[in-house]
Design brief:
The complex is a heterodimer of chains A (about 260) and B (about 375). Chain A is an alpha/beta fold and about 260 residues long. Chain A has eight helices and ten strands. The chains are: A alpha/beta (about 260), B alpha/beta (about 375).
């Protein structure tokens, strides 16, 4: 499958994986390795360098790109501080901006996300902002240097799929940097749907981590993402509202014909 | 406007009459709802709901997986002092009790911190009895400065403070507040808090809100189950959490379900709370407030705590001693109450893994 580009890096896998909520780090590692993902996101606030068994970095394959996220940040200032700390801890230049000030629905704060993205992009970070799909905000994120834009399909952890489908479709049409659908994807079929629409990639966590068999589910997502991308490239056949054969309004013209 | 206004709305509500009217089909219908109202929540505490515990458990597990996954955060309390100026009928620290009093020096605090840190824990809860003279905010600020060398997350469980004092502690490095109302019923509150500043019901009730206004990161509340009818106390606790969450969106809320434990003193006027009651309360909290963390302390025995993990518990204490200086085994002060689950951090880590859950040592860091 053809690759895509984020921040100058060419990626083959279009499935990004999140690391929260797994029953163990061993299981998480197996899921990551099994699905061939090249980008793995983890909450920097959870990175525990002092404790080998609790240190998530020990379980992420070395050839994977780390995408530390700013989970826990309630405003731009906190997100910026976490990103800088992440770089100082040796977690690289990639960062997923998560600014969430609503602990109930965990919806992102778009305004603060733009502010953090602007500052960090100027500092040379590869910034992937998680956002509520909104065209004007996505354009601003793009203009201030986001390497990709990550709209939510539905709220984090809900597994409700592409509830924001129409907004994501507009972002895919209008935004030049990659659109990566993040949050809410609950089933491989929903990931495939996002890919069929033309998303460059998807990020999945809860649906894999809390599946009965996370390793199998990660593999299923990999296949679904590939299938969806193939379908996008193959350009799906157009839909018709009525069967072509029937002509309920003009059929009378043919009455009496053999 | 404070939570007291909400409390007043329900002060004369016929809770028992309402609970009697709830039928099992009502409960099964409520479980399926996306958003529960106050009465739905109360219905989950009814006798009819007690007959639907398995259905409630299935729903609670589903919601816990969605919001928290298969993870349990580990922390431990560190008792700094058992000096107290209050006369609480149910507490060993009661000023009238002849227990061995002790306050840790800064050197002793550091020694305790070093020993706890060796277990790998990164979250610590600092506790004191309530004495502004023995443990003023300045003492706590110094203790927090020492803790910062060893721990990523520092919470406090101390006497209620003014907003400015919470701000001082937050600036020093505190990110969490635990404060139990003990009992929400105002009359019962007066009966069990015989003397001392803790008798001020309102100052305690509004303490979590003052901490929220001071921009604290997380708040843990609860009622001491056993001081009053558990249905009433669980209902008010849930309502309080809901009030705080709606008003302070960015604060992470937790609820604890402490049951009264053996202690020094003669208070025996306890309303029984069985294991089944405790499970019902836990499930009702999870279904009503799927996004709040739920803490289960070592007051409960190990086997029960293990069974509660898949039902929605997200935080557990481990390696606990409630004695002042209890970790470093030096000259200890007497404990606040007897714990039940005496497992070490390593034993708890293994127990959580055995349940198919991931023990988390670090979930937060001061930024």
């Amino acid at each position: 499958m053809e690759g895509f580009n984020i921040g100058g890096k060419s990626l083959k896998s279009r499935l990004l994986v999140g690391t929260g909520k797994f029953a163990s780090y061993d299981l998480m590692k197996q899921a990551i390795e099994g699905c061939g993902t090249q980008v793995v996101t983890m909450a920097l606030r959870r990175v525990n360098l002092d404790h080998k068994e609790d240190n998530i970095l020990e379980y992420i394959p070395k050839d994977t790109i780390l995408l530390p996220n700013t989970s826990g940040a309630r405003n731009a200032e906190e997100a910026i501080r976490i990103a800088r700390l992440s770089r100082a801890m040796g977690c690289g230049d990639w960062v997923k901006i998560e600014v969430i000030s609503d602990q109930k629905y965990l919806l992102p704060d778009n305004e603060e996300t733009v502010k953090a993205t602007e500052v960090l992009a100027k500092e040379g970070f590869i910034v992937l902002p998680y956002m509520n799909p909104d065209l004007m905000i996505a354009k601003r994120l793009e203009s201030v240097g986001a390497a990709a834009v990550m709209p939510l399909g539905s709220p984090i952890g809900t597994n409700k799929g592409l509830q924001t489908k129409e907004m994501i479709r507009i972002l895919i049409e209008e935004i030049k940097v990659p659109i990566i659908v993040d949050a809410g994807i609950g089933k491989p079929s929903q990931a495939a749907e996002a890919m069929e629409m033309g998303a460059e990639a998807v990020l999945v966590n809860t649906a894999i981590a809390t599946a009965q068999n996370p390793v199998k589910m990660a593999k299923a997502f990999e296949l679904a993402v590939r299938a969806g991308r193939l379908a996008f490239n193959g350009v799906t056949a157009p839909q018709a509202k009525v069967a072509r054969a029937s002509s309920p309004l003009t059929g009378f013209l043919h009455e009496g014909e053999a | 406007m404070s939570f007291y206004d909400t409390y007043l709305e329900y002060e004369n509500f016929d809770t028992e009459g309402f609970l009697k009217e709830v039928k099992e089909p009502d409960v099964l219908g409520i479980i399926k709802k996306n958003k529960l109202n106050h009465h739905d929540f109360l219905a989950l505490l009814s006798p009819a709901a007690a007959n639907c515990l398995e259905e409630m458990a299935q729903r609670a597990q589903e919601l816990s997986l969605q919001h928290f996954g298969k993870t349990v955060l580990l922390y431990t309390p560190l008792y700094l002092s058992n000096y107290c100026v209050n006369r609480c009928a149910y507490c060993s620290y009661n000023i009238d009790h002849d227990i061995k009093r002790k306050k840790l020096t800064y050197d002793e605090i550091e020694k305790e911190a070093q020993i706890i840190a060796e277990t790998g824990l990164k979250h610590i809860l600092l506790l004191t009895g309530e004495s502004r003279i023995e443990t003023p905010v300045s003492y706590l600020v110094e203790a927090v400065k020492i803790m910062k060398k060893y721990f990523d997350s520092i919470a406090i469980e101390i006497d209620p403070l003014e907003k400015e004092d919470y701000q001082r502690l937050i600036e020093a490095g505190v990110d969490g507040l635990t404060i139990y109302q003990e009992v929400y019923d105002e009359e019962v509150y007066k009966q069990v808090h015989l003397a001392g500043p803790k008798r001020n019901y309102h100052f305690r009730l509004d303490a979590p809100e003052r901490a929220c206004e001071a921009n604290i990161h997380n708040v843990n509340i609860g009622a001491l189950l056993g001081l009053n009818k558990w249905q009433h106390e669980a209902f008010m606790t849930g309502m309080h959490a809901n009030y705080l969450q709606n008003k302070y969106n960015d604060v992470e809320l937790s609820i604890s379900l402490p049951r009264i434990r053996p202690h020094v003193g003669g208070f025996r006027d306890v309303y029984p709370v069985t294991d089944q009651d405790l499970v019902q309360v836990l499930l009702a909290f999870r279904i009503y407030l799927p996004y709040v963390a739920i803490t289960m302390s070592t007051r409960e025995r190990g086997s029960l705590r293990d069974h509660l993990i898949p039902l929605g518990v997200t935080k557990m204490s481990a390696g606990v001693t409630t004695e002042v200086g209890g970790h470093s085994d030096s000259d200890k002060g007497d404990s606040q109450f007897e714990i039940s689950d005496t497992r070490s951090v390593e034993e708890m880590r293994k127990a959580i893994l055995n349940k198919g859950y991931q023990p988390i040592f670090k979930n937060w860091m001061a930024i």
